[in-house]
Amino acid sequence: MTVIQNITSHLSVKKAGIAGAGGLGSNVAAALVRSGVGHIVIADYDAVTESNLNRQFYFEDQVGRLKVEALRENLLRINSRTNVEARSCKITARNAQSLFNSCDVVIEALDSAKEKKWFAEWMIAHFPFKPLIMGSGMAGYGSPETLRVQRSGNLYICGDQKETDEKLVPLLAPRVIMVAMMQANLALQLLLKEKP
Known about the structure:
Layout: H1 3-11, E1 15-19, H2 23-35, E2 39-44, H3 67-78, E3 83-88, H4 96-100, E4 105-108, H5 113-126, E5 132-135, E6 148-152, E7 155-159, H6 173-191
Helix pairs in contact: 2-3, 2-6
């Protein structure tokens, strides 16, 4: 068995949860499916808009569709053997347990700072031993050297951790996708039991 076959075999039985199907979540999901993760749970309640197409893993003909349904379709085009649970819902304290309880790792890809905060607090309180990989600070362009991973226990934060006004500094594909790939890469390390 080759190294890649061994890694793929190991990842095929792993389950990753993704909270949010926007710029981070949709691109993380694509990277994990391409890498061989066998089961993806992704939750979001939003629909694809034209403004999403500059950085999210969707296409023009999917505008107006629920993100999780369009993303499931796109992921299965990468690997039809992947088990993709697409949950069209707002993530709340009432449903987060049922969404992410069985996941080996959870990736936070929510839109607002308020959502990110409550989700991190909820995960730490309810799943203290489950790795949570968050994204923070990816707006604008340039300066890839400012992107990094910060760790506190089982909480990992990818990005430059700077809050910016998205009306002044837009979200653009390169930095959003770089942070998404940092999250996906870290998820693979954790799923393969390697120390980040």
